[in-house]
Amino acid sequence: MKLSKSQAAGLSVFSNLTLALLKLVIGILSGSMTIIAESAHSGFDLLASLIAYFSVRMSDQPPDQEHPYGHSKIENISGILEASLIFLVSIWIFYQAFHKIIDKKFEVTNLPIGIAIMIFSLFANIFVSRLLYRVARERNSIALEADAAHLWSDVLTSGGAILTLAIIYISDKFFSVKLFLLDPIFSMVIALWILGIAYRLTRKSYPALLDGRAKPEMEKRLIYLIQEFCQGRCQYHKLRTRQSGAKIYVDFHLQFMPDTHIETAHLLSHDLKKKIEAEIAGSDVIIHLEPFEDETEVALRK
């Protein structure tokens, strides 16, 4: 069954809410800064997924009088907001872990149940992140892709947290070696990892707000479709693309021989427009018709 963008984002909201609450309760009971850090990470993932949920719903609204090009850029704005939230949570986690080291509050309890919750979180996030990535690719959604990236970062940090807590538990239980200092140290590593996610997400989100061009592989596919269609009947130039959320705006000039009837040229360009929009999801194509000019004609006109 194929999910819509809203359905996928809704599943992410539910998953993040459940995991954030579980991690917070277990983190407080165990005193583990690593689990509390993971809870904060999931909490901000929840906020990010809520932003993604509302942004994909708004971006799918049709164009109106105030917004004739639609609302697709809201997804890129949500990406910037999510990156800002992730940056803030990374600073908070690092600050709390640093003070735990300074205050020498290393004791961690109830580790087995903490490890069990982290394992559950790991597999839940693997499932939801893979689903979100699939829907993001199908729907060309930057908001869902950002949400999936958050959850996948949870998978990696949860795996590291499980390993850290397991080492602390085994060393204390079987060898009477206290390695509780590993807990806040790993929290600081998580914070730095999350900071990197914020940076990468910002770099991916802002180009569309500045009318950045579509991805290279998308443009390569576009050029192939135009050349395959023309095959001696016409040629193109002045190709431009810009990415706007899940939308890709395309415009170019299509040249025909001077004796080509305007109706024929119009029908051919209309067929090409439909072909591109059918092959490239989210594309919106504008084609300008003009007669073919050789170099001599251009020189004479000048």
Q: What do you see in this structure?
A:
This protein is mostly helical and 302 residues long. It contains nine helices and three strands. The chain has helices spanning 5-30, 33-59, 74-102, 111-139, 142-175, 182-209, 216-230, 262-279, 295-301; strands at residues 235-244, 247-256, 283-291. A three-stranded mixed β-sheet has the order 1-2-3.
Alpha carbon gap, first and last residue: 59 Å
SSE succession: HHHHHHHEEHEH
CATH topology of the largest domain: Alpha-lytic protease prodomain-like
> Can you count the beta strands?
3
Q: Estimate percent helicity.
A: over 70%
Query: What is the CATH level 1 assignment of the largest domain?
Result: Mainly Alpha
CATH superfamily of the largest domain: Cation efflux protein transmembrane domain
**Helix segment tally:** 9
- The number of domains: 2
User: What's the Cα radius of gyration?
Assistant: 26 Å
Biggest sheet strand line-up: 1-2-3
CATH A-level architecture of the largest domain:
Up-down Bundle
Biggest beta sheet summary: 3 strands, mixed
- Write down the overall mean pLDDT: 81
Which descriptor suits the 3D outline?
elongated
Proportion in β-strands: 5-15%
Unreliable parts: 296-302
Q: Provide the structure class.
A: mainly alpha
Give a short overview.
This protein is mainly α. Helix content is 71%, strand content 10%. The chain has two domains: 5-209, Cation efflux protein transmembrane domain (Alpha-lytic protease prodomain-like), CATH 1.20.1510.10; 216-301, Cation efflux protein, cytoplasmic domain (Alpha-Beta Plaits, 2-Layer Sandwich).
